[in-house]
Amino acid sequence: MPCTVAAAGASFTLHSQGLLTDVVRGGLKTDLNLGFELADSDFAKDSWGDTKNPFRASGSNAGVTSPTSYRGQQPLFKPLVENPIVSVTTDFSPASVSHRFYGAGVPTFDHLRSFYRIPHHLYGGTSPVVAERGPDHVAVKVPSAAGGTNFAPSNPPAGQGSVLAIRPVLNRMVYLLSSKIGADGQVRLVITPVVSLWNPYNIALEVEGAVAYPWIDIPFRVNWKIKTSTGSKQYNLSMSKLMGKQFESQNHGRSVNPYFFCQMTASGTSSLSKPIRFEPGEVRVFVPTSPTPTEFVRLGSNYQRVVWLRPVDDVSQMNTKGGLSVPMKGGVYGEGFDYQIQSQDTVTTEVEALNGQYNYFVSLEDASRIKDRRDTTRGEAISDVQVWKFASAIDRVTSPEFSFAELRSGSRPFGVIETFHRVAKQGLDGQPIADLIYTTNPRQPAINHQLSEGSFTVAPHYQSTLRSVASFDGAIQTTPDGRCSFWGASQSSSGREQLPFFEIPREPLLSMAAFQHADLASSTFSASNQFGNSWASPYLASNRVGKVSTTYVAAGVPIYDSLYLTNEALWDGYFFSGAAPRLRPASSGDPQSAWKSSIATVERSLEKVLDDFVDDPQGNPLGNSRMRLFNSGYTNEELVDRLLEPAGCTRIASHLIVDGAFNINSTDLEAWVAFLSGLRDQAFDVIGGSSPSNSSTAFPRFRHPTGEFNDNWNGFRMLSDSQLLELATNIVAEVRKRGPFLSLAEFVNRRVESTDLGRSGAIQAAINSSNLNADALQATFDVSNYPSEARRNIVNDTGVGIPGYLTQSDVLQSIAPVITPRSDTFIVRGYGETKNSSGKVTAQAWCEAVVQRIPDFVDPATPAESALASANITNQTFGRRFQIITFQEVSPSEL
Question: Which of 148, 684, 784, 827 is a good FRET partner for 671, with 20 to 30 A between their CA atoms?
Answer without folding.
Answer: 684
